Amino acid sequence: MEAIEVTDLRKAYGDTRAVDGVTFTVRAGETFGIVGHNGAGKTTTVECLIGLRRADAGTVRVLGEDPARRRRALAHRLGVQLQDSSLPERIKVGEALRMFGSFYRNAADWRRVMERWGLRPLARKAFGDLSGGQKQRLMLALALVGDPEVVVLDELTTGLDPIARRETWRLIGDLKTAGTTVVLVSHYFDEIEALCDRVAVFAHGRVEATGTTGELIARTGTASLEEAYLALEGADR
Amino acid sequence: MKAFTALTAAELRLLSRDPASLFFMVAFPLMLLVLKRGDGGAVPGYLAMIATIGGMGALPGLLASYRERKVLKRLATTPISPVLLLGAQLVAQVAAGLAGSVLLVVVAIAVFGVRAPGDVLMLAAAFLLCSVMVCALGFMIAAVVRNTRGASLIGMLVMFPMIFLSGAAVPRKALPGSLRQIGDFLPLTPAVKALGDAWSGTAASFPLLILAGIIVVATAAGAALFRWE
Ligand SMILES: Nc1ncnc2c1ncn2[C@@H]1O[C@H](COP(=O)(O)OP(=O)(O)O)[C@@H](O)[C@H]1O
Ligand SMILES: [Mg+2]
């Protein structure tokens, strides 16, 4: 079964054609990577998936629903970590988790989510006093407090130190084991290789290639995902 | 409902952690009362001032910062509507203003022997309408001015002259005629009048209708102009 189906998606901001005919599918339970240069249209695509933006053309289906029309119903089954977003400076970690938990119909127990993601010692700390890595971890925990079927993570580990990044990988691995569908936008090839079943390479608002790491490497005759990516992006310039 | 309660509780907690809000909505009016040696005639105006400090001094900057820092955007990815957040914000501001006001009234009566309000129900109605109105004006400012600093600044720039010219901070009788005429056109003036009338027990419904009208217009304008990002 397909958890996500995107067909010929298009979205422009004025003259900028941010997404210019994107097609891909994500199977249920799959961890799906999206890579691509800055401005390739990754975030715009993700925002169409979660119903924050309305596509100009094309179709988007998430768990069989159109996110632009059924955003709120779908939001109960979706966990989201935006590329840049934040919380009120003075809200405490525990309060934020409890509050977000109250938004969802089938929420997980927020205390257990807090425990699981190692946020327990920070429960009484204000968002504004957290380090970058701690903020990211909280935003990820908030994406999961609704016990989602599909999780969308936009540049989850950008700005994290290597230890925090590995720690995050372990937690995403747990999601995968639990059968959650994950869409992971990332600039880190090691991360994509370690976590993702398949990858889409975005360039200039289009999907340049989709496949497993092995397939992309074979197709480009290169030795690593990074080289495969560079070959694919280079071909486009 | 559960989500709304949680949001409102969170907003109230955040307000109670903001020293500026606490000072200006609770301590400052009490200080003024002490300076005025418990002049009972000033109290209804101070109630309008407390509400205005929250709705126009604090709210525009707060909403603009939620937008600028993508707090609203993050909420828009959850099952709740971001409109709910605006509602929670309103309830929290009104509740905070009410707490500061009740304290002021109790101190005025208990400590300074001010005569109790003549029409408590009308006073409550006037306070509620006044609070909602200043929040609607604050919302409108946050809709027009996009960045946080700008929205805070404009909120303050509108608020200060208004609390002085409407009779909230100083009696209108003390103002020169030309300034009093400007005051006639300010939305807070009917609020101060409604609060004063209710206190003295001579409440009329006309000022309340004006306040309701301003609420409708400001909310509609704010809703038409407000951008979530
Ligand atoms: N809100 C917006 N308004 C105008 N242009 C935008 C907006 N968001 C993104 N863009 C533009 O659309 C293109 C794609 O951006 P984005 O989807 O954020 O790419 P990515 O996430 O791959 O870096 C870029 O050229 C960017 O400048
Ligand atoms: Mg992006």
TrEMBL record, chain A:
Q: Which key words tag this protein in UniProt?
A: Antibiotic resistance, ATP-binding, Nucleotide-binding, Transport
Q: Where is the ABC transporter domain?
A: 4-229
Q: Which residues form a coiled coil?
A: none
Q: Which GO terms describe its molecular function?
A: ATP binding
Report the membrane topology from the UniProt record: Peripheral membrane protein
Where in the cell? Cell membrane
Q: What InterPro entries does UniProt report for this protein, alphabetically?
A: AAA+_ATPase, ABC_transporter-like_ATP-bd, ABC_transporter-like_CS, ABC_transporter_ATP-binding, P-loop_NTPase
PANTHER family annotated for this entry? ABC TRANSPORTER ATP-BINDING PROTEIN
Q: Give the protein's recorded name.
A: ABC transporter ATP-binding protein
To which species is this protein native? Microbispora siamensis
UniProtKB/TrEMBL annotation, chain B:
* Regions that span the bilayer: 20-37, 43-63, 83-114, 120-144, 151-170, 206-226
* Keywords in alphabetical order: Antibiotic resistance, Cell membrane, Membrane, Transmembrane, Transmembrane helix, Transport
Domain ABC transmembrane type-2, first and last residues per copy = 8-229
Give the family per the record.
Answer: Belongs to the ABC-2 integral membrane protein family.
Cell compartments where the protein resides: Cell membrane; Membrane
According to Swiss-Prot or TrEMBL, what is its membrane topology?
A: Multi-pass membrane protein
The protein's name is: Transport permease protein
Where is the secretion signal located? none
Keyword Transport included in the entry's annotation: yes
- Out of the domains of life, which is the source? Bacteria
Keyword Hydrolase: yes or no?
no
